[in-house]
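Hello Y.,

Per our agreement to keep a running log of every chain we model this quarter, I'm adding this entry. I've kept the format consistent with earlier entries: sequence first, then predicted structure.
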Amino acid sequence: MAEHDTTIAEADTGDIAAPQQTPGSESTSSAVLQKRHPMEALLKAGGVVVPKPGEVAEGSVVEKKGGVLFVDLGIKGMGIVYGREYKAAEDIIKPLEPGDTVNAKIVELDNDEGYIELSLKEAGDEKRWVRLRQLRDTGEAVDIKVIEANRGGLIMDLEGIKGFLPASQLSIKNYPRVEGGDKERILLELQKLAGQTLRVKIIDIDPQEQKLIFSEKGVASEESRQALAKFSAGDIVDGEVTGVVDFGAFVRFGDTLEGLIHISEIDWTLIEDPRAVLKPGDKVRAKIIDLANGKIALSLKALKDDPWVKIAEQYKKGDVVKAKITRFTTFGAFAEIEPQIQGLIHISEFGTPVRMQEELKSGEERDVRILLIDPKEHRMSLGLPRNTTLADPQGGSKANAADDDNIRGTAREGPTNQTEKTP
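Predicted structure for the entry above:
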């Protein structure tokens, strides 16, 4: 056995090894505490139960004296808790009285004095880890108070064991959506949760590593699935913008649900930066347009009149109209013929991007010819009147007719997809 803070002799337990009796009476305590080898009890009982180091055994408190706790383990023998193990478990030992039942982990089967050395603290820790494993395996949710926050998440305590809740495992309600992912601002948002009680699940556990990982999102997901069952595509919901990113905005509604308004679903007109029209805290009314795979797609523009509906009545292929140049892309220039209606002048009209920007200036008005118009697909192809000599029998520029498919797409550009739907 490794060295101890104290030995049995130092603990003034000589009377236990050789009990003293008072005249006319026999000390019951001394009789029970008299030194006996663990195997002696096994042999007398004819049993074959052999205790092993590391296992947890149940016993009855016999006596605590001089920094030593004696525990009767029945057929296994007499156990003791002393030295470092006694000090480590003082808070457990202090309220114990003779006859109390305790669980202890066997540290050594047969020390120099013939006792089974025990650890109450390790047994308590082991029982807690067993309980935590059960919680993980059953998926049971528990309510835990947040102790503190750091840049990665929250520190929490469950049954005396500290665990960690990563920020990525927070629910929609508590997740810190911070513009640009600023770490200091994220920390400030997380610190607001200190002292609050969160309902979480255990998702990872490792007693050897003293690792205990929680998830609030796992609990919220169950609640969200139940809440989501009440909605269907086409429903209109009122919510609050919780975050704005390059590709759209997140909107929370119904307490536990959150959906995404894609940049192309914000408005019928072309939106280059969602932050220009939406900000966190904005109250919005949106339409649910998709609920695939538990993801909620929302739309603002679906609740607005489609400006393309009457375009077919107002314009036709071959018309020359005034248009305002709004922006340039690698595949052409966009020109607005009226609010929320834009068409694409393809790069083939100019040959190169440089020549395109030499001939056109952003914000200027130019005469353009409508080469193709498709209100259903929100698509319009435009050309410059000077190119009408190249027009083919179908009424469109050969270059543009060949590239009609290049103006179909969504309301935002992609690095590998040069197709874009006009707003």
